[in-house]
Amino acid sequence: DLTLMPNSIYNIYRIAEDYSADIIQCNGDLVFLDKDSARRRTSRRRFVSPVKQREILHDTQAFDKFIDCKISTYMCNRLIRRGAYLLALSDIDPMYCVLNEDYIQTFFLFRHCFIMVCVTDKIVNYTIDTGVTNENDITLKKFDQYCSSANVFIYLRDYCIAHGLSYLVRNYVNRIISN
């Protein structure tokens, strides 16, 4: 369901090296196969949060943008330094998670990010309405996968409370309600 743009990885890898960045955040586009899903298309596009200009974020700035819903939670439109990714994964306990896995990974990536460069390059097309994102065919298995989304927000709520970040819980509740 992902299509990379020609030379995109090469171009953003060079930027990552130039800035010694943990993350390069790029633009991507959502492609919908279901042409009748105008409402869903509009609501999903808001979560892509396109990069409008090159920006270098340091320390907590990426996490702050994430908390304020001003940066994409999709993992497919970023290049991540391996060490930064492994550090983020070390904070996530094993869980069943089919939907919103990008969200939980983004939370911990940005929490540990020292340098992130946002660039306007479009690197990927992400096709929606295939696999689990296809809402036309609801099965018991797919329903279970949709329910796995709650695991992410429950885990993050508990993490925030345990680490003195309970003020962030409201952001998660608002995001769930608006999604």
Characterise this structure.
This protein is an alpha+beta fold. About 45% of the residues lie in helices and about 20% in strands. The protein has 7 helices and 5 strands; from the N terminus they run βαβαβαβααβαα. The protein has helices at about 10-20, 40-50, 60-65, 80-90, 100-110, 140-160, 170-179; strands spanning about 1-5, 25-30, 55-60, 80, 115-130. Strands 1, 2, 3, 4 and 5 form a 5-stranded mixed beta sheet that branches. Helix 6 (about 140-160) packs antiparallel against helix 7. The longest helix is centred in the last third of the chain and has 23 residues, at about 140-160. The protein is globular and about 45 Å long. The two termini are about 20 Å apart. The model has no long low-confidence stretch (mean pLDDT about 80).
Number of helices: 7
What is the percent of helical residues?
Answer: 40-55%
Structural class computed from helices and strand pairing: alpha+beta
Q: Could you tell me the strand content as a percent range?
A: 15-25%
What multimeric state do the chains show?
Answer: single chain
Inertia-based shape: globular
Ends: how far apart?
21 Å
Order of helices and strands: EHEHEHEHHEHH
Cα-based radius of gyration, to the nearest Å: 16 Å
Poorly predicted runs: none
**What average pLDDT do the residues reach?**
80
Number of strands: 5
Largest sheet: 5 strands, mixed
